[in-house]
User: What shape does this take?
Amino acid sequence: LFTLVQEYRKWGKIKSTYIDGYLKFRNAATGRIHPDFFALSTETGRMNCRNPNLQNCPRKSNDPIGVRNFIQAPKNHLILSLDFSQIELRVGAFYCRDKTMMETYQNGEDIHAATTAVIFGCTYAEAQNKHRPEYKEQRTIAKNVNFGTFYGLFPKGLQSTLKFKAGVEKSIPECEEIIRNLKAGYPALTGWQNETKMIAKQKLYTETWLGRRRYLPNIRSDNWGLQSFAERCALNTPIQGTAADILKLAIVRILEGLPSRPWLRPILQIHDELTFLIPKDRLQEAVAFVKGCMEQQPFPEFDLPLVAEASAGENFGNLEELEE
Assistant: This one.
């Protein structure tokens, strides 16, 4: 019975959110959906979207009916998407100034392989070797650890993340060892975390590199739950917020170039990704222009390379990565 109820709720959610929900906002004059975007309505500075919220489109890996396929390009046009590669990890490395992390990005290397080497005590070359029996599991763990690295990892939380997001079972002592190895391998990380939390406690706010503030009065709270959440925000906001600021600077550069490129039409923004509608014969020109805007140094102090990965296709659900 419970299995059937779960199945019913899953399909009911898809129908109400992505079919009826999208159709409800279809414009009768254009035949299209025109969501509302807000540039200043989140605590971290990320843009958000409503009526409908197209930022919560299901990912390819969790899209049983192909919701993204609903969004199609007109005849002789393509949907072009450019996505910042690992921007929050790059911003985190910029903030904490860890030598290993920075060299990994400066040399165009693989941060997940670097973290695999740090956690499991193997060489970088071994971490990249796809033929090793441990390769898949260790890389999966490294990826999940990386995305929580800067925000404060706890053994129980890591165990839960690995189990439910990655399907990897690890004991609490094993998770404790992973975190211990991570801190030892990236020594500047812990120092940055402690310093950032201390400054936030003194000022009662945290901020992005460009000065966007998030006030955190609960960081001095006697309630451990409130204080712990505020401390995580103190670590999360500078990174996620600075990444959002970098994307907005790229958008400004793109907007400045639109009058001379009337064929380039922005249609969607999803966190670190920008999506456009373009004529098929303008693909290379569009990619070169948008990549140039996104990969430009965002502010003088930022000394790590930014990478925007491009993909294109006739509908949003079947975008193919473009070769460099």
Observations:
- Residues 224-257 form the longest helix (34 residues).
- The longest strand covers residues 77-84.
- The mean pLDDT is 92.
- The radius of gyration is 21 Å.
